[in-house]
Amino acid sequence: KELFARALHDQGPRAGAPFVAPNCGAVPDALFEAELFGHAKGSFTGAERARPGLLARAEGGTLFFDEIGELPLARQVSLLRVLETRTYRPVGSDDERTFDARIVAATHRDLGREVEKGTFRADLLFRLNVVEVRIPSLRERRSDVPLLVRAFEEKLGRSLSLSAEARAAIASYDFPGNVRELLHLLERLSILRTRVEWSHLPRELRRHAPAPLARDRIPASGDRASPLSPVVDEPAPAPLGAVTGEHREVERALAASGGNITHAAESLGLTRHGLKKRMVRLGLRPAKKDPS
Which end of the chain is more exposed for a tag (fewer CB within 10 A), N or C? Predict the structure, then answer.
């Protein structure tokens, strides 16, 4: 949700101004007003100097309230007044200040039901719900997974060195925790591994994602079949009519990407051109309408 809110900010007229993103569920109830409005020096014990709040820090930009549904009713009143009057007073100050920033709020809750239950104010929902945007779960937009992996790598400043099998497994997983779960996984892998194989992925992910298959060949006497090695752009041709582990891997990547050759190629660590050549060699036909 924060990525989406930041994209709205970066693509809009306020792009050069601050983007401030508090998590409403992480701010202690007793400190909410001091966090939102800021406070004057000496306004409470420990306030040795004045401190600007979220409203002042977001001035001219975007203030993104993540998990707005976690805000207690008493604090919803404070936020509602700001939205109605566009003014506020720092805690311990008589100085009324104006506020100019775009407000974006997100939640995983059904706020309409929360209003019916009496845990969310109807007037605050009315103020917030000017334009509603539903963000589909990651399960509903698997083609975004390779893009999110690439964005994380760009932020990290280096490649995660994911094997083709690991990329395909990540691309095919449902991620019930959505983008946050994916980013936490990538962060953990970046800390623990310099090269990520399928076997290094969490057990829960490996249980739901396809495992790499051994090459379909009959071992010679005394020879042991070797596990499927990471795919390179031009492996040796498969026997005519054989359905190899490589064949299945490409099929899985195409299925996970919804037939999008560009995204399937990224999950396999190939170029689009390289994947199309491989599909021809394996006898795989692209979808009639390639979403690429």
Answer: C
Owning domain of residue 172: 139-215+229-282
Single out the residue in 84, 103, 128 at which a domain terminates. 128
Spans of the chain, pLDDT less than 50: 213-243
pLDDT confidence of residue 76: 94
- Give the per-residue pLDDT at 288: 59
Per-residue pLDDT, 266? 75
| Same domain, residue pair 277 and 150 | yes
The whole-model pTM stands at 0.58
3-state percent helix, strand, coil for the chain, nearest multiple of 5:
45, 10, 45
